[in-house]
Amino acid sequence: MPIRERIDNLKSQIPIHANLIAVSKTRTLEEIEEAYLTGMRDFGENKVQELVDKYDKFHKDVKWHFIGHLQRNKVKYIVGKVFLIHSLDNIQLLNEIEKKFASVGETANVLIQINIGRDENKSGILIEALEELISACEKCKNVKVLGLMTVIPKGDESSNRKYFRKMKEIFEDLKTKNFKNISMKYLSMGMSGDYKIALEEGANVIRIGEGIFGKRNYNNI
Ligand SMILES: *Cc1c(COP(=O)(O)O)cnc(C)c1O
Fold it and tell me: What CATH number is associated with residue 39?
């Protein structure tokens, strides 16, 4: 199915308040252009180098989302290029983001990534460490937390639903609090295989790669 058709299809299924991010990792500029021509402006990348390359070569009105694990020593490369960092999950990284964005007088918009499945192989903060990270965010001047992100463990529908529901509970709970620098605007969860369940459970940002561009081939990059 052509990229345009896949995007139209997805858009017809998702509520107006939900945001669709086209996950363009490993995709060529030609493929991304096809999505761009349908009106897509939000693209997600999980490698710093790849985001920077694409930022430099592609249309400047694109909003680049960083959705992968972010190493501290690479924060400097995405300053001024990233629209939203979905993967804040520790205080050292927060401090580096604060420092590098402050140095050029910019504000970083971030989501806190939660390891809701307590999966040792996944990034994201464990819920018991969330409070401490939030306190650290409250002290920042150049970081704004706009919501939460998660990648859930592989599982069946009821397992997916359980994790998405837990995320939504945390999201709603934080929404009632008045933390400085923290607002709960975006709940980023759901990928090609599980976005429908994610939307049913309250996601308002979904990140779709293969469901837009077809199967990924990691040899492309
Ligand atoms: C690759 C990736 C996606 C998209 O996955 P698909 O299964 O291709 O939709 C979403 N979120 C993150 C964090 C990813 O790394």
Answer: 3.20.20.10
